[in-house]
Amino acid sequence: MYSKLKNIAVSAGLTAFGVGYIDDLRPHFDALPMDQTEGLSFGISIGARVSASVLKGCIMGPTRHYLHHYKMLNLLLDQTALKISLTIQDRGYNALPIPASQIVDWEKQTAHLSHKMIALRAGLGWIGRNNLLVHPEAGSKIRIATVLTNMPLQTDNSLERDCGVCKKCMEICPVSAIRESYKDWDKPACLAKLKYFAKEHNVGQYICGLCIKVCQP
Fold first, then answer.
1. CB–CB of 66/58 below 8 Å?
2. Is the pLDDT of residue 185 over 80?
């Protein structure tokens, strides 16, 4: 079934697909009750590449064009996650698709779970200095979504890589929120700038795009 599910993602035009064993992460899914994820020990991670050409328009911050592209990628991911889930269910197993971009705690800016933590287990990439997933080909120019399932699937190996000497995201960040280690990322400073962009750039959503634009593994 691994190949069949991957083909659904590839046929939809997605860039990345992987599976990881994530049962030990379930207690950290703060917005998902433990009984809702009971038995769902496998995480399917899917990713869609963000257009580098669209991101070129983000000079001083996000644009309306980027906002539209961002929303369309999330829609594509959610639709593909649904197709994968339905295929799993047709085989008699359970599947829980997690929205690509749905905030459940606005103060903390957190979702149902951390998609990038699932993506790490599924071998899609590593965490960059900008605290985002870095795909070996797409860099941080990738949006991701997750499907949790109890279907026993072949799992992928985590990537043992990092950003090396690249510090482009540190250099472009308008509030110097990005540090040498992603663990030192200044979330409050980043969030404050996203709030500013949402209002002043007339995008109405917490997006930026600058560190994503320059990320080239």
1. yes
2. yes
Characterise 129 by phi-psi region: left (phi > 0), alpha (psi -120 to 50), beta (else): alpha
Find the angle CA(169)-CA(173)-CA(175) to the nearest 5 degrees. Answer: 150
Global pTM exceeds 0.70:
yes
The structural domain count of the chain equals: 1
CA torsion angle 87 88 93 96 (round to 10): -110
Q: What is the pLDDT of residue 107?
A: 73
- Say whether pLDDT at 204 is over 80: yes
Judged against a pLDDT cut of 80, whether residue 108 lies above it is answered with: no
What gap in Å lies between CA 42 and CA 154, rounded to an integer? Answer: 9
Scanning the chain, the segments in alpha helix (DSSP H) are 2-11, 52-56, 64-90, 115-121, 168-172, 187-200, 210-214
Domain extent, residue 151, equals 2-214
Task: Determine the 3-state secondary structure of 151 from DSSP.
Answer: coil
